[in-house]
């Protein structure tokens, strides 16, 4: 059986020198977040001593794309393949009678701020935020499960506020509950296997169960246990679970909050709720993901969005090979699409389909599959060598945007596509794009014996 815990991956990182134990006492109010920010591209950080708390905190576990692959047990070059396989061949979860996440149970006088070392991240934010909490809920009409991540603010005792956009599935479920005169039961799993985090971020349809794709990523069924106080199922090997409900009639002003672009935003009201039960492992570790424009935050969304977008495009354009949502584009706004020998006009079609599939995208670059879409240098080379502005630039003004776009005007933006691919005849003998290389036979021989040089 695969190790379905977060701490199994922590062990892998520790063996490779990519997990650093912080021995110094750290304040969860601002200091912890500042450390994660200043060590953003460094090792994972396990804070062993948190002021006012006995529970340690871990962060920056997934601040590099290669670590997603390591967590799933594959080489970095195989990350795209395992994501596509999981989407194509999901595995339904399985119920187990008990799991380590329920070793300790708290049901009396819940005080989340006392129980958990939840960081306060930024100067103008009003309170601590849970940022790595995977929220499980069920459709009040169909009973179908939804698994997602949204920010949860601690508002004292067991009170919480969920910041959710109206187009998110969790908001839709809360709205359905409101129409039925009900509250929406939720469970929040913290400290999960990377497969659970990725699964929660996939762009699936309403009613699709993200747990199934998590099973595909694991290569086996995800083990679940039933919650103690709500009719929901949670990963048996999570570190911590919060059980409670959202009240869609309890709207609470959120005030300034960080967004993935790194700026403060004020979205108005969020949905209030209450946590009535907390379960956790005996020696639980609290996982924190630095919000704002931080590598782990951007990559978690970007890797998942890229996988689902690639699958959608390949159904319509078989020449599509890979899709990378770039870190510079905040893991949301910019994409590079790799295609194999696209026919005339196929690159432009891929641009338009991608923008239609993912509302957030506002810059899409198309390259051929001899260019690594993860390599910014190669992508820029492709633009310099193959992109012809008069023919290959697509500009679509006044397109509806997401509220979180940092430069939208009245919820619209201008979307741009750049097709940096070859034309028929490019690269042939005596063409102006003929490659200057050693003879192929020599290159093949050198490549075969490269380690000897």
Task: Describe this structure as you would to a colleague.
The protein is α+β, with helices and mostly antiparallel strands and 453 residues long. The relative contact order is 0.12. It has helices spanning 6-15, 31-38, 65-71, 79-88, 112-115, 169-179, 194-201, 210-218, 295-316, 346-357, 376-386, 389-392, 440-448, and strands at residues 19-22, 44-47, 57-59, 94-95, 104-106, 129-130, 133-138, 145-149, 151-154, 159-163, 184-190, 223-226, 233-235, 240-253, 257-258, 264-265, 269-280, 286-287, 320-325, 334-339, 363-368, 393-400, 412-420. It has 13 helices and 23 strands. The longest helix has 22 residues, at 295-316. Strands 5, 6, 7, 8, 9, 10, 11, 14 and 17 form a nine-stranded antiparallel β-sheet that branches. Strands 19-20-21-23-22 form a five-stranded mixed β-sheet, sandwiched between helices. The two termini are 42 Å apart. Strand 7 and strand 8 (145-149) form a beta hairpin. It folds into two domains: 64-289, Electron Transport, Fmn-binding Protein, Chain A (Pnp Oxidase, Chain A); 296-420, UbiD C-terminal domain-like (3-Layer(aba) Sandwich), CATH 3.40.1670. The chain is globular, with a radius of gyration of 23 Å. The model has no long low-confidence stretch (mean pLDDT 95). Helix content is 28%, strand content 26%.
